[in-house]
Write a structure and sequence with these properties.
Blueprint lengths: L8 H14 L3 E4 L4 H13 L3 E3 L9 E3 L13 E3 L4 H4 L8 H12 L7 E9 L8 E7 L2 H10 L1 E2 L1 H7 L6 E6 L23 E5 L4 E5 L4 H4 L2 H17 L2 E3 L2 E6 L5 E7 L6 H5 L9 E6 L3 E5 L5 E5 L3 E5 L9 H6 L5 E3 L2 E3 L4 E2 L11 E2 L5 E2 L17 E5 L16 E9 L9 E3 L3 H9 L2 E3 L11 E3 L12 H13 L9 E5 L19 H12 L4 E4 L2 E4 L12 H7 L4 H15 L9 H18 L12
Parallel strand pairs: 1-5, 3-18, 4-9, 6-8, 8-10, 13-24, 24-28
Antiparallel strand pairs: 2-3, 5-6, 5-7, 9-10, 11-15, 12-13, 12-14, 15-16, 16-24, 17-23, 18-23, 19-20, 19-21, 21-22, 25-28, 26-27, 29-30
Helix pairs in contact: 2-5, 11-12, 11-16, 15-16
The structure holds guanosine-5'-triphosphate, sulfopyruvate and manganese (II) ion (MN).
Length: 620
């Protein structure tokens, strides 16, 4: 399609403005057709940056290898440029918007030379849903265009929905690598050096300007930039929630279903939980989303979650027919692989795929790689943050209502992260406010999903630290307000904190995870039904020792450990929150959350007090 096919004067004007400024060789508007996807992909193949995979092994699929500087989100180069610094808050990098635009204008000038400028009109959420949002991404990358084609709804139907004056979120993207006359990428992933990468958000004007990276959340602007950072701001203004949450449907043996959402930090198990195959007989899980959910009240007073993406951008390493067969099947065809290894017969391979490397490979950096199982220090063939991009409707366990324009009513919200100790397998909040507190203290070991987040355990409130587009203290307040806005508190989802990542002193997993997590989901289902065996503890409600069926290999002793309330560990946790976490938010931290922390501490001390009075006065 061409610009002439667009009947929206505001959009046409913006396209022309960017074209004149970035000076691409040509402009192309995506119609979202299969033929178009192939044409764009062939262009990437010709430029040597896409490798067609063996059609017998992975039909209609391609491998890309990115630049080593461009393998994950870059949080240090991500900016929230709100008018006031205070509105970006303590968890974001802030730059004055006028200054940042000036810097970026310097970089964007002529940046698309030698390239095609693609106009991607896309919908986050089903086309036509009153809750969906339309974005327009202008990009000079075929990789981004093809990925957006899978991850969002793109093209004609969305352009029609936008009409002549519909609102859209402006998303400008360039890889930041203009080409000279006659030059093509010639096998080199195009991007700019790290100090020239900018993932910029202008919350007041709902704009996204991204420069210099072609990878994942930095470049597929519908995902973290729009559906989380900009959407959190819109959600605050409009009274809903934009969250880093999977959505799943859990069905019991009697055929009763409940919907569960779960927020875990990047690379902490959302895709795996969303596609889980229960190990308990008769139970089923179906997937609606593996990464992002938008939640709002329905007319019946319940909170509904809508799935906003159309595909999965999933972590590859560790994915196997054993750990996640649904993801393996989803990514079997029509899939884009990024930064995994290539086999001699043009299939893909990665660490944790479940079988040995079949012969000589080409690793994610394009070098020959031969598996050496005797060498524990061998560099992996695939980058730890290598990803597959696969259409959601290819997933065997996709839920039949995943495109419901109203979303689905949520029974339970889970928070979690990678915590080798202290945090038990599961505990539940007593109220929405207590649940908001649990979300606010989420912590996790750092993963490879961000390039520059350091190591150790970091607090990642609601798994949203890198994705809240405004002041995180105000975001907590907004969570509390959403709870207060409930017509009937008893209709609110129950909130839980789970931890599949407990380790023994020897560093082994204490809990097998994956399909066995269904045992915890079953208990949560029963809590929602009011039939679960529970005990009240200082940290919240918990299962009794035998309330959760034990998987093979988990002894009663292990279960005791998994469900133990480690009073001293929790008191250290409280101290860390009090000293290092909550003060970050200053006056913006809602008093209700400080009060939750105080009462948790008092309850822990009381549990420890053995002088008999139960108040903690003996100081133990
Ligand atoms: P993002 O796409 O970055 O948001 O990640 P995600 O939250 O969807 O994480 P994903 O499901 O891709 O899992 C990331 C890693 O955690 C993979 O290497 C998994 O193998 C591992 N993992 C997932 N679930 C479990 C579990 O229950 N137990 C253990 N031990 N590991 C798990
Ligand atoms: C994450 O990091 O949480 C992801 C991958 O889901 S990205 O789209 O790159 O943000
Ligand atoms: Mn994610």
């Amino acid at each position: 399609m061409t610009v002439n096919d667009i009947k929206h004067p505001g959009l046409v004007a913006w396209i022309n403005e960017i074209k004149d400024y970035c000076t691409p060789d040509s402009v192309y508007v995506l119609d979202g057709s299969a033929e178009e996807y192939d044409r764009l992909m062939q262009k990437a193949v010709k430029a040597g940056i896409a490798i067609p995979l063996n059609p017998e092994k992975k039909p209609h699929s391609f491998l890309f290898r990115s630049d080593p500087s461009d393998v994950a989100r870059v949080e240090k180069r991500t900016f929230i440029a709100s008018e006031k610094q205070e509105d970006a808050g303590p968890t974001n990098n802030w730059v004055d918007p006028a200054e940042l635009k000036k810097t970026l204008m310097g970089l964007y000038k002529g940046c698309m030379k030698g390239r095609t400028m693609y106009v991607i009109v896309f919908s986050m959420g089903p086309v036509g849903s009153e809750f969906s949002k339309i974005g327009v991404e202008i990009t000079d990358s075929e990789y981004v265009s093809c990925n957006m084609d899978i991850m969002t709804r793109v093209g004609k139907a969305v352009i029609e929905e936008l009409g002549t004056n519909g609102f859209f979120i402006h998303c400008l993207h360039s890889v930041g690598k203009p080409l000279a006359e006659g030059e093509n990428d010639n096998g080199m992933w195009p991007c700019a050096p790290i100090e020239k990468k900018y993932i910029a958000h202008f919350p007041e004007t709902r704009e996204i300007w991204s420069f210099g990276s072609g990878y994942g959340g930095n470049a597929l602007l519908g995902k973290k930039c729009l559906a989380l950072r900009i959407a959190t701001v819109m959600a605050r203004d409009e009274g809903w929630l934009a969250e880093h949450m999977l959505i799943l449907k859990l069905t019991n043996p009697e055929g009763k279903s409940r919907y569960v959402t779960a927020a875990f930090p990047s690379a902490c198990g959302k895709t795996n939980l969303a596609m889980l195959i229960p190990t308990i007989p008769g139970w089923q899980v179906h997937t609606l989303s593996d990464d992002i959910a938008w939640l709002r009240y329905g007319k019946d007073g319940r909170l509904y979650a809508m799935s906003v993406e159309a595909g999965f951008f999933g972590v590859v390493p560790g994915t196997s027919m054993h750990s996640n067969p649904n993801a393996m099947i989803a990514a079997q065809k029509n899939t884009i692989y990024t930064n995994v290894a290539l086999t001699e017969d043009k299939d893909v391979w990665w660490e944790g795929i479940g079988y040995d490397a079949p012969g000589k490979l080409i690793d994610w950096q394009g070098n020959e790689w031969v598996q050496d199982k005797t060498n524990k220090d061998q560099k992996p063939s695939s980058h730890p943050n290598s990803r597959f991009t696969a259409p959601a409707n290819q997933c065997p366990c996709i839920s039949d209502d995943w495109e419901d324009p109203h979303g689905v009513p949520v029974s339970a919200i889970l928070f979690g992260g990678r915590r080798p100790s202290t945090i038990p397998l599961v505990h539940g909040a007593r109220t929405w406010t207590h649940g908001t507190f649990l979300g606010s203290i989420v912590g996790s070991e750092i993963t490879a999903a961000a390039l520059d987040a350091g190591s150790g355990i970091r607090r990642d409130p609601m798994a949203m630290k890198p994705f809240i587009g405004y002041n995180a203290g105000d975001y907590f307040k907004h969570w509390l307000n959403v709870g207060k806005a409930a017509k009937d508190q008893s209709l609110l989802p129950r909130i839980f904190y789970v931890n599949w990542f407990r380790k023994t002193a020897e560093g082994k997993w204490l809990w097998p995870g994956y399909g066995d997590n269904s045992r915890v989901l079953k208990w949560i289902f029963e809590v929602c039904d009011g039939t679960a065996q529970t005990v009240d503890t200082p940290i919240g409600i918990m299962p009794t020792l035998d309330a959760i069926d034990r998987p093979e290999g988990v002894t009663e002793e292990d279960m005791k450990e998994l469900l133990n309330v480690d009073i001293d560990g929790w008191l250290r946790e409280v101290e860390d929150i009090r000293k290092n976490h909550y003060p970050i938010f200053g006056d913006k931290l809602p008093k209700e959350l400080w009060a939750q922390l105080d009462s948790l501490e008092a309850d822990l001390k009381a549990a420890k007090c053995d002088c008999g009075c139960g108040c903690g006065c003996c100081g133990k």
